[in-house]
User: Fold these one by one.
Assistant:
Number 1:
Amino acid sequence: MTDQSPGAGAASEVEEALHSGLTSQLGMMARALWASPVRDTLFLLAGGIFVVVAATAYGQIRLNRWNTPFYDALSHRDLEGFVAQLGVFVVIAGALLVLNVAQRWLGEMLKLKLRQGLVHDLIEGWMLPRRAFRLAHAGPIGVNPDQRMHEDARHLTELSSDLGIGLLQASMLLVAFVGVLWSLSSAFSARIGGRVIAMPGYMVWAAVVYAGSASLLSYWAGRNLIGRNAERYAREADLRFSLVRVNEHIDAISLADGETDEARRLELDLRQVLTAMRALVTGLTQLTWITAGYGWFTIVAPIVAAAPLYFAGDLSFGGLMMAAGAFNQVQSSLRWFVDNFSTIADWRATLLRVATFRRAVITTDQLHRVQSRIALVEGAPGRISIERLEIASQAGCTMLREKSIELKAGERVLVLGEHGVGKTLLFRAFAGLWPWGAGRIVRPKGEKILYMPRAPYMPPGTLREMLAYPLAVASFEGPAFAHALSRLGLQQLSPALDQPRRWDQALSADEQQALAFARIVLHAPPWVIFDDVLGSLDGQTLERVIDVLAHELKSSGLIHIGTTRTHDDLFPRVLHLIKDPAARRLPRNRSLGPAALQPG
């Protein structure tokens, strides 16, 4: 089996993302939000923002017009006019302040609701039955789903809100002030080579040329920032994954004196993060030469552009300041792309990661659609049938030697297989997690089958909630919880049934296994399928489990998939699992990576 780190294949993911269309990615986000429960709220917030931005644009036009009488009063040393215009300024500025506060509140609420809608959609799709498992085994895209749904989704919604509001504001100011700037320079003409050339709207064209040249140079300098941002986020996710992994397994690492080796692995992940950040720093530095250069020149650019009109006598000093203000508004609106280029690149990179993940969540059930599938159907209650079952994997075909099998209610069966034959694949095929192969599994309609993996799952919450999982505590009678614990020798935990705690850390491995069997006692399912669980038990825990299976669950059908034959009195019937490496191999491709191969 090929070893693959969480970061393997990220480069191909970035390459795929860069070649996917922006329209399809935006469509992904729009569909997610359209189907979300906050859709109507998003429309209301967007409408409110539009109204506030429009009102703000009108207020800025009034403020721009105020420049003419104010600066004319200054140039004429008109104290009365100067004081009057200060009063006008207070009114306009006060109204703009209220609009600014309203816009900030609406913008922050928009971020909140965008995140709620997007993350709700991602979690809902990810948590559909069997989908998260298949996605986890779908290659690099299934690595670090928590990063995609938490940090990437948060970053995407915040950037989308800020950029969307900024673009709307820039567009409205552009429309509003182009008319002002055109009227101020509508009659402009220039003498060139003895000829008078009319240049109506001269200042508008000057603003367009100024902002256009800045946009082109910014795009040329920063066009690679999208890929560099995507690479950085992929590397950051890998580092976070490694840190969480070390923290979760710190006991085993310390017992093996493996801190030095783990530190080396973490240093490698950190080095990859820093390499990606250095590339990003280089790109941002190159872009800053353009954006900062134009930013400094913008201080005098409006005055330089309006100077011909002022010296020709077509503008007063107040008119000059009004023209300069209008020029600034127009060119800053046109330069919105320049000023936000690095943020747009960051937004594109985050959008690519979230869009790629959502596409994988939606399409993961279609992996290897060309491959034949194991038919998983419902049949008559009280029996499980297995017909010519073949389980495909990249390592070959796992199958039962017995071609046609029927198990009746209450029957106990042991499935024997050597190491590496694919016992876990059979376990997953029974549960419907591994659909690739051929044959048919008929499960009893309306009867619960409880699947017990080798490592028990300890959900967060109280012991009572853990035992009832995934059902509600109210589904069981109160004394049943203490009884289940006592049957597995865990009666000392009864007083702590309603205490929330990290039980996966508070309990030993043997206690966790015993607790998993206590859950079976509580649920008393008609069928239980084990993935080599009994082979990991010994001593009193094993004795209690055997007693529980023989008496508490005497009417339940049991299928134990294991390596060695044991407890013949409990499992009188034996089936045999074999493997043919040359038959029905699952081809390696980008949709199903080496992570899909599980030993068993």
Note: Confidence is low (pLDDT under 50) at residues 1-19, 589-600.
Number 2:
Amino acid sequence: MSWLATLLVAVVTGVVSALASGFVTGLANGWYEVSKREGQAGFFVLSMGFLGFIGGLAVGLVVSRLVAGSASPEVGKALGISVGVVLLALAGIGVTSRLLADIPPGMDGEPLWLLVEVRFPARHPSPVEERREIRLTLGSVGRFSKGVRVRKEGVLWLDEARRDGETWVVPGAVEIFTSRGKRLLEVEVDDKPMIASLAPVPGHPGPKEREWSGWLSASDLTYRLRVRKKSEPIRREAYGPFEVETVVGDLFRIEPRDGLAMGANSQLRISHRGKPVEVEGATGRRFGRPFQGALSVMAVVASKPALLVHVPAEEDRGALHLVTEENGEVRSLFLCATGGRIDVSELTSDPGRLKASRSTSPAGWFDRVGLDHPGLYLLDGGMFVDGRVVLDTTRLAVYKVPEPKELSGGGWGAPLALSPDGRSFVRLVDRETPSLLVSDFVADRAYLLPIDRKRMRTLASTQVDGAWIGHHFAWKREDGTDVLAERPGFSPLPYRGEMRLQSGATRGPMTYALWGAGQELKKAIVDVLTAEVKAELLPAGPDPRVQLLRVEGRVVHVYAGTSDPALVDVSVEGGEAENALVSALATHIDAALATGKFDAMLRR
């Protein structure tokens, strides 16, 4: 057999190997859920196809030369053996990959949820009544080992807990994500294990598992199980004449709220007295895929049951509707267009209620908390959508929010204050020149009040709140309505810094920040800390913009930027655990700023 024939066998074997490698890799992408974002799955297939070609080329070369030296050096024989070796090897790789993959079981071609009910003793303190964080996980245990190979977190709904004699029963759900191994069900309360039990659920559940099991014992708790298909609702909640069914695609971790730590990608289906509710304008599609139901639903506490319903609309946007019952019939009122989400803020001057209204809604679940008392609420459809309205839940009245044309595209913050007559609210516009935006939604007019950073000694937008507004501005009556105006003779407040998290974070290490004459202000802060808390100067580090100090055995960074005005901030090595020390240092610095001797260094 000639070398030309050898090269031909090698190339053909390489091509076959490349195609087979790509096919096996494509299957493995599905088994191991390789992301398709930014072409990751496709790149993996191409990479493995190229490696398969190189491997097949090598096999073809070796096999064809061995055949060439045999008693029957035939090209067909060399090609058959080479292709057979490659296909056999790839089949072995494919079978092994399939056996080691976590392939979820199905029923009628659909993945499954495992519904759970956990029975807690009605003792005190009660994890249910105190809304402590309760976690549910499902793990896979090897058939010949006791270790948990992999886990997936589910959800337990404390808001649906019910009393059953001397116990609390809490429902929940977790995805059946693999058919491998034995299933370990675990329940923790505030990270303390309460249940760790092998659940009697087969690798491939059948019709029998759709019914509730008997109550199973685990420690001093008991639980029971059943299986549901993913196209079926895993929650059904009644609200007046309405019922909301939650069909969940998957769960994800969120900031805990009232014991709930998992959000959901859901479709919320609404019915009225047993009949499906069709909201006008809903497209039944989202991102080009079928979507039956609403993106979010909020219960509106009013004189009669009502729902705030956010549905997908044209061009992957959304629409917000108020759904009520009139004379036994469903009525749907369009409120505003939205982006991918809707922000709801209560309009009030009560700082406690204002802060509570901005807490995160339970993503993907029927929300009974966000509008749980009568009042005024701002419904914001997003920065790039012309749609903001005020909902008066006392009378179920709706007002469009007026906004100056020069502010089109947004750029304002959350509501900060409400006028005494309850018809105007205030937001901060934090642009090159910060201002207060006052919107009289009843009279359909809006106006801007400039903020003089120097006279009002304001370095950060977070320092502008209801109390700050009340100090610098006042409501006065004009033509029977309340109008906001600057106080003519306010006393300047002392400068103070800002405690801040990393951008977009809700928790983590904090820094204390100021703005002004960078290096001069940095030296002043270092002098304050060395005098007040006996900070020890440390040798310079690699960054000349940072002065290192030692306070109470911890390393403190005092940083100054190079712009003018410059950001100057104070942080402590050690992460979130050192936030208390950062706060203590901030108190000392703010006290020094209150003397006024550093005013000339501060500006924004």
Note: Helices lie at 3-31, 40-68, 75-100, 351-357, 453-456, 466-472, 518-532, 579-593.
Number 3:
Amino acid sequence: MKLRILSATLCLLAMTLPVRGQEAAVCCDFCFATGINPHLSLSNPSAISAFGGHISMAELDFRKDNGALISLTESPDSYKAGAATESYFKVSDKITFHGRLSWSYISGRQMGAQVLMDPDFNPVNFLESDEATVGVKNREDYSMLGAMSYKLGDKWALGCEADYSAADQTKVKDPRFSNVWMDLALKSGFSFTPADDKLLGAYLFYRSTMEQVRGGIYGTTDKQYFVMADKGGFFGTVAGLSGDIDYVPMTEYRPMKNDFFGLSLQALTGAWSNELEVSYRMGYYGKQASGSATYFEFSGLRAGYDGGFLARSGSNIHKATLSLDYELLGNDENVFKFVTPSGQETRVEYSGKNHIFDRHMASAAISYVWHKGADGYLPEFSIGANVSGRGRVQTTVLYPFYRNTDCFTIDAEAFADRNIRKGASVFSFGGKLAFRSGWGTPKDDGTYATTTSSNLKSFDNYLFRQFEFDTAPAAGAGLSFAYTRIISDKVAPYVKLSDSFLMLLAEPQYLGGRIRNVALIAIGCNF
């Protein structure tokens, strides 16, 4: 396994090296150059066949986050270090490659609550029952992407892509939850290009994710720890953390598995680009074996649209984007028991399933940017704005009880960047203003029938903290500076500094503080 990973890494690293005979005429900023290329904005791997020459980047960065204006998955005191490299290059008239590698390490203090790495990704989550058990969490991420396109002629091209990422996360205080993440996405498609500014394309894709989790106790073993199974809206049941029968095991990893199957269509016509994607999702939590239980089974549908407008007028560029996304996700809880027939091994007997959860999630984002003097390494001036909104409406039914929740959040940002070139030096200055707010109903509880007792729990402390983070009005600002040295037509190293600040506009009721500050330094090279 290590040999295969090393071989794949070396192959992708080779992609970032300049290719003889296909060198870029003028060195330019990687993010800017790829951002104004309409073919590279499409997710179809065959569309990169329209790219000529090569462009690459490599970067190291360090980030420091402070402040208690955080979601349940964040830390009030954390740092992150990372490295990344990416490249597009044309090997010949027929073959074009795209490669990317990245690594990051993050360590955060006073972290607890959520057990899974991304609780919004799945319909069920697990929570620490005691807020006093917060501690340090360390996480390491790796990702690699490789894509290739092959031109069949002047107008047709085929493409394929493999995108793999992995991560591991460990909490360094009892209960010491440990998580392992794997994500693999495969694409295969084609494109038809009747003219340089026109393209029709389609691809099929498959994505598989798996997060494995387990708990651990290494300190005082006579203390009992509990885990809440959040079945939606911070509403569910509480179980002890011991052995392997309950939701989170102690001696082995238990998987949360998801599979996605989808189709995407693309159309590029002059200044306009359009992309539509639909997919079907199916997954489960547990092990599908006779002696192990499958606790939950879920499925869903997703549809997304990405549109873009890119117009050039002399050295001016106007770019606008629109993204729309909708997902429906449902969850069933299996009803089962463990039985041990005489002289036989323990097995699981299922007696049915209950539909316990439905979630509708939608998001929309629109952006606009104007680049003035965009015929050099960077534009002389850029100004723009982004507005995004997301909403979630969900129902949890643990009969005879139910909980309805909804939450809507809006983010807005305006920014301006100035780039000044003096000989071989480029000085970049940037500023931004940000605003966030939201609304919704944190919980609307009721019953379908009268009952006198229940083992269900509502973790309102976590519920109201997360809801306040998503909806409380907040405003912020940020500044950035970068220095680039253009050594030649092929190489331009740079250093970037930035700091952003966000503050609630009123004193919080449930959050631990009203301020968040993020500082970043990056050193890299475009080539």
Note: The first strand starts at residue 54 and ends at 66.
